[in-house]
Amino acid sequence: MGCSKWRAAFNFGHLKVQSKLSVFFTMIILFTYLFYCLNGFCDSLPRPVFDRQSSYQSKMILKDGEDASTQEHNASQVSFVRGQLSDLSNGDASANISIANTFGSKKFPQAIIIGVKKGGTRALLEFLRIHPDVRAVGAEPHFFDRFYDKGLAWYRNLMPRTLEGQITMEKTPSYFITKEAPRRVFSMSRHTKLIVVVRDPVTRAVSDYTQTLTKSPGLPSFQNLAFRNTTTGLIDTSWSAVRIGIYAKHLENWLHFFPLSSFLFVSGERLVTDPAGEMGRVQDFLGLKRVVTDKHFYFNQTKGFPCLKKPEGSSRPRCLGKSKGRPHPQIPSEVLLRLRDFYRPFNLKFYQMTGQDFGWD
Strands 297-300 and 263-267: what pairing? Predict the structure, then answer.
């Protein structure tokens, strides 16, 4: 009997100790949880997907509501984008504007090279891609001029993945002359930085014609396309090679939606003669450290423009393809003079609008 009583007392005491230990550890867990919550760590805990979707959509609606109230003429476009962003949330487990994984995120471009054709946009993009904080689409997406109906999800999916602190970019030179493009870009983001590479419009027109001629050898002569009537010298502004060079007209369309501070105008001529200097301006505009400098360039006498020096681990330097630096056909000097007279007032207006003298006259 004595042993039984002793065993029962021992078991009872053991249970009490276990009970006290359980309470003790529970209290430690509770106090630890409260400590983390008071320090804001609870907010970083994962929430259900539908919760994050609701929060995201609410924020976007509030933001777009502000846009609509201050930009009434863009109300329909903003509504369209709101719907697109809502679709993105419904179809994306991250419910965010970017698709995240361990290798970065796909985001809408914070900067776009919007123009101009045959101005030097490909060179600028290739120079920028040296920078470790720039990630850019190689091919021209043509979203805001040709494929807008495919939607924002399609456009964002074209973008490369970026890490924190990197900039997403794309270039499509035809955006600058597309009437609908400014409104569409604005509807995506009013904070988009816009880069326009411009070049002497007469030289640019000849370069444009040269490119077309290689694809269509039976093309009429430059002067037959540039003039409605060669006798009177009336310029045919319906020809795209001429129309693109009326920079002031196209810029007016963009300034209805974006302030001048959203633009950087890069000289196509200086991109050839002083690539490091122009790249310094571009990097400053994008808020990047000046990584791309004169040590990256050398002038290729054969091609007539700068190339990138040989990267480490590569057997040869990087130059633009055969389609760049083509020899231009001989154009009668009187034709070029008439075209230069035509562009002069538009050039002067463009200098006034941008505050930059590009020295084309």
Answer: unpaired
